Amino acid sequence: MTPAPRHAHAPAATPADRAPAGLARVLFLLSALLVGAAFSQPLASVPATTYAPFYPVAGEGPHEVPAFEIAVVPVTNADYLAFVRDHPDWAKGAPPEIFADPGYLAHWAGPTDLGDTPADAAVTNVSWFAAGAYCDARGLRLPSEDEWEVAARAGVDRADASDDPVVQAERLAAYARRNAAPPRVGRAAPNLYGVHDLHGLVWEWVEDPWSGIVQGDSRNIGDRDVARVCGGASLGARDRDDYPAFLRHAVRTALGPASVTGSVGFRCAR
Amino acid sequence: MKIPRSTQNRTSIDGGTALVAIVLALGVLAIGTTGWLVDRGASTRVDAAPVQPAAQPIVQHVQDTSTGHDVTMPEEALAPVELVDVADLPVVEAELGYAPNAAPPVDRDHPALVDVEFISTEETMEIADGVDYTFWTFNGSVPGPMIRVRQGDAVRLNFKNSHESAMPHNIDLHAVTGTGGGAEATLTMPGHETGVTFRALNPGVYIYHCATAPVGMHIGNGMYGLIVVEPEEGYPEVDREYYVVQGDFYTPGDFGEPGHQPFDMQRAIDEDPSYVLFNGRVGAIAGENALHAEVGETVRLFVGNGGPNLVSSFHVIGEIFDRVYVEGGMMVNENVQTTLVPAGGSAMVEFRAEVPSTLNLVDHSIFRTFHKGTLGQIVVVGEEDHEIYSERQYERPFDPADAPDLPAN
User: Fold this and answer.
1) What is the H or E stretch that residue B215 is in?
2) How far apart are alpha carbons B256 and A48 in whole angstroms?
3) CB contact, 8 Å: B263 with chain A?
4) Quick one: B388 exposed, middle or buried, by C-beta within 10 A (0-12, 13-18, 19+)?
5) Which of B120, B161, B192 best probes binding to A when mutated, by most A CB atoms within 10 angstroms?
6) Which of A146, B128, B168, B302 has the highest CB neighbour number within 10 Å of its CB?
7) What global pTM score does this model have?
8) Do the interacting molecules here have an ipTM over 0.85?
């Protein structure tokens, strides 16, 4: 999962956003489906590399990360609507609470009704279980934490921009930026691999979000093997200056697998 | 339920008498710490359950030289705190104080289960005229609201994180005896809520703050405030109380540079603030927002320092603190000019306003006041008293021959 506040340059509401019920709504939904099709998750290739975990286990070297593919944008509401039509077990109100907290798809009007939610905005209010089920249904999977971090550390012109203070400051500001506009995907510039929206749109689920997280009280030094609350805040962190990484890990720590919230979405990989 | 706490200080303090600290060496290995306690002469002694320390304390009788009073630590100071089971406590809702207003004194002679509702928010507000900053807050204000409870109370905290937040938040209250001061129990995603109940065991003035990683960024964005735990008998009555919390802020633009200013991580690490403020804004308690008092009134300031970095040399120009509850604890110092308020700490200061004037509250690490905004004011109105202060008696040229003879060097 990755973090991110809302879209930096979200436009003002379009006429479609303000469409009243009735014919306009039908037209809007049709156009939304077209938009959704346009964002049907093409995948970008990321070559094999190594990744040093933010909270390394003592004695552990960098992880080998084989080549993988990752969706160029997060899963949209339109994408997810198509999924729940095929898999009513995951419709709004359907999954039991152990798989998704009561706020699951709270921003939708009904089980298969987006209401005022833009079709091309990243779907949020989905649990880790739900995100995994979606990717599974597409023959994909959630990216591992290592994969997500490898994709996200890239800048627009290089594979690792996380040591660039200017880039890091931009990411920090993007995370902290408050924007009430819907998180429409694909509007920010892509990175080296052609992947959009990794910083500043929505936080994103990963396959193993609790593998190396900070404690709820993030000043303690912990043991990575202790439950989900492990690792340390600064002591034990690979790079104390990587505030964006601290923030991502704090989000992961605060979530459980059934958690849903309006700022967490996901994308798939393979 | 009775929990013996040998380090618990229970003092009765009334106004006006002198104060002396005595050191009690608690015997043997039992604790190995030194307990400090202060008592003020003619206090009302509470008949408390007898103490049964692990080892007999060595009590050294001490006399206050100015009053002749025996200021030896009273026995009840080491008495156990009588705790009523949470289930048996009456439930009351906390009355919070929003700066510069202090929360009202606790008007109870019995413990209660106090409900406190907090919500963390992220919102853009002015840090100075024409300068915006995106603060992270408790209940929408910097500092967060002042909580005020009574020793022995249980505090039931409901912690919400606004649906509009981007970040998870939590709260570590220094008044809490328990894991992380409540931080771990209250780590909360946007749109979620958590709950925790803790016992106010030790009286004093305590900072609370957000403790989510990276901690300094959350504190630096304004997430701090005070929780005051009154001793069972309360603090002495005063005429006015105010709530002031200092904090340092880090932005790429220097003081006053207009527009929206984000948090500057490197300046925070370098401890190079662009703003050092009382109550989160330039002029929050100065100029038209100045605090007020009248001649003859007693004034109490609950002073906190959220930091995240700087230690405050807190001083009020034109007054002397008659009493300072040092570091927010129960030791009272008298006749203090400047008191240290550590980052993540507090002091409670009291004075009587004797003459009319505008009192300037400053951090006497004085470049901060002059260049970075650490200035507050209390306007004291009332009749002048020339027996105490004459005001200016003349202004005129003088004859060079009247210059005083200086020692030759």
Assistant:
1) helix B215-220
2) 48
3) yes
4) exposed
5) B192
6) B168
7) 0.79
8) no
